[in-house]
Amino acid sequence: MKIGVLALQGAVAEHIRSLEAAGAEAVAVKRVEQLDELNGLVIPGGESTTIGKLMRKYGFMEAIREFSAQGKPLFGTCAGLIVLADRIEGQDEAHLRLMDMTVARNAFGRQRESFETDLDVKGIDEPIRAVFIRAPLIKSVGEDVEVLSTYKDEIVTARQGTLLAASYHPELTDDYRLHAYFLDMVKEAAAAKA
Ligand code: GLN
């Protein structure tokens, strides 16, 4: 399985390391042409407005929508989750608008800019270690979206078919199980097409 990490801005190298540790071949994606050779794509954390701007500038909006329409999985973490969302609270414009959810940016406030916790995730046996940095929250989801984990009753991990979204940074720990979960989604998607 070959997985790309969108490398316009944000935590790219860490995702590549985690994907490799989980058993995938991983590459940094800077040009839309690279998408053709990939089975799945990670949109990393960083700053969603910046990532969105660069995606528009380099033609990634349409190219990633097309990639997803081909049944290839996407995994958005933190800012990447915001980029996947159909609706962003307090903003008129969203980015890819692929995942049926409303997100709130910087939802934990200033007191809790960053923190770590152990999180139960549906489909993963033991809690995973999650690092939250100026993290968004998923405020509401459509009926096709499955909630995979909550933190203090707020949704922080969700899946809609071939789309996976996490509010936190799974790539900043040595716990690769959420990346492994995504690789399983990619394998399932590839098998379904074969
Ligand atoms: N606060 C950032 C945003 O709104 C996301 C933070 C992150 O990715 N660590 O885009």
Automatic annotation (TrEMBL):
The active site is at C78 (nucleophile), H169 (charge relay system), E171 (charge relay system). Pathway: Cofactor biosynthesis; pyridoxal 5'-phosphate biosynthesis. Catalyzes the hydrolysis of glutamine to glutamate and ammonia as part of the biosynthesis of pyridoxal 5'-phosphate. The resulting ammonia molecule is channeled to the active site of PdxS. NCBIfam families: PLP_synth_Pdx2. SUPFAM superfamilies: Class I glutamine amidotransferase-like. It catalyses: L-glutamine + H2O = L-glutamate + NH4(+); aldehydo-D-ribose 5-phosphate + D-glyceraldehyde 3-phosphate + L-glutamine = pyridoxal 5'-phosphate + L-glutamate + phosphate + 3 H2O + H(+). GO terms for biological process: L-glutamine catabolic process; pyridoxal phosphate biosynthetic process; pyridoxine metabolic process. InterPro entries: Class_I_gatase-like, PdxT/SNO, PdxT/SNO_CS. Keywords: Glutamine amidotransferase, Hydrolase, Lyase, Pyridoxal phosphate. The lineage of its organism: Bacteria, Bacillati, Bacillota, Bacilli, Bacillales. GO terms for molecular function: glutaminase activity; pyridoxal 5'-phosphate synthase (glutamine hydrolysing) activity. GO terms for cellular component: cytosol; glutaminase complex. L-glutamine binds at G46, E47, S48, R105, I133, R134. PROSITE patterns: GATASE_TYPE_1, PDXT_SNO_1, PDXT_SNO_2. The gene is pdxT. This is Pyridoxal 5'-phosphate synthase subunit PdxT. In the presence of PdxS, forms a dodecamer of heterodimers. Only shows activity in the heterodimer. Its EC number is 4.3.3.6, 3.5.1.2. Belongs to the glutaminase PdxT/SNO family.
